[in-house]
Amino acid sequence: MIYMKIVTYNVNGIRASIKLGLLDWLKKFNADIYCIQEVRCNENLTKELIFDRKEQMSLFEDSQTNLSNYYATYNCGLRAGYAGTLILSKVKPDKIILDMQEFWTDDEGRTTTIILGNTAIVNAYIPNGNSRLEFKMQYLSALTKYLNKLKESYNVICVGDFNIAHNEIDLSHPKQCKNKSVFLPIERTAFGELLSFGFADCYRFVNPEKVEYTWRSYRSRYDENYNSWKYRIDYILVSDGLNSQIEECNILDLPYSDHLPVVLNLKD
């Protein structure tokens, strides 16, 4: 049986995460596709950090990490130190789409798509709604339309940081968050509408009752007595044609970001 292993990971700044050992983990984990959000670094420097590590050593290992067997698709945006997405894939993409064609464009590098055969893989970094809720809702509307258009021609895998906890099981303090962006009714409804067009939340598909989160504060990692709010806001969604191929979907507890990566194994 052939598997495809896909990882989505908001690294909250690729320079900081590399200093903590991210590249060593990427190499060892050996996924087929890594979708990374919040690169927060321009394309030239990102390329240098990933592929030219003459002096970019991990804090925990002094061996050089080589990811040269991956093809990199960059969409780092134009705003220095802000947003940006990146896809590393072992197979060279047949096609690359930056932004969302006629549905959306921005200068923040929030959406990157690669086409591999009959599958479209969309890496999305949905805006935080604390200061730009209208912008966030416009993005979600465009993303829903874009994914539905892709679905006409491809199997679709959409991954990323959605900045939305869909249901009460997906956050630690639902009552306190009812008026907070991340758990607003308008956000949750938009996410539900996206799913209703024939997309499955892979983690919840295979773990219907499990309580885990993909974001927690840095402090909570080191202080067991610190009552941090926690959210499951990072997702891997697949179109209905791929539901039967979901083998497992897990959240990994790693120290390289305030987010945790989500891993999907698809069987052929």
What does this protein look like?
- This protein has 268 residues and is α+β, with helices and mostly antiparallel strands.
- The protein contains seven helices and twelve strands.
- Strands 3-4-2-1-12-11 form a six-stranded mixed β-sheet.
- α4 runs parallel beside α5.
- The longest helix is centred in the middle third of the chain and has 19 residues, at 133-151.
List keywords for this structure.
about 270 residues; alpha+beta; Deoxyribonuclease I, Chain A; six-stranded mixed sheet; about 25% helix; globular
The proportion of strand residues reads 25-35%
Total tally of structural domains? 1
Strand order of the largest sheet: 3-4-2-1-12-11
Structural class of the helices, strands and pairings?
Answer: alpha+beta
CATH-level-4 superfamily name: Endonuclease/exonuclease/phosphatase
The CATH first-level class comes to Alpha Beta
What are the segments in which pLDDT stays under 50 over at least 5 consecutive residues? 55-63
Shape by Cα distribution: globular
Mean pLDDT: 93
Give the helix proportion (percent range): 10-25%
CATH architecture: 4-Layer Sandwich
Integer-rounded radius of gyration: 18 Å
List the helices and strands and how they pair.
Elements: E1 3-10, H1 14-19, H2 22-29, E2 33-37, H3 43-51, E3 71-75, E4 85-89, E5 95-98, E6 111-116, E7 119-125, H4 133-151, E8 155-161, H5 185-196, E9 199-201, H6 202-206, H7 218-222, E10 234-239, E11 246-251, E12 262-267
Parallel strand pairs: 1-2, 7-8
Antiparallel strand pairs: 1-12, 2-4, 3-4, 5-6, 6-7, 8-10, 9-10, 11-12
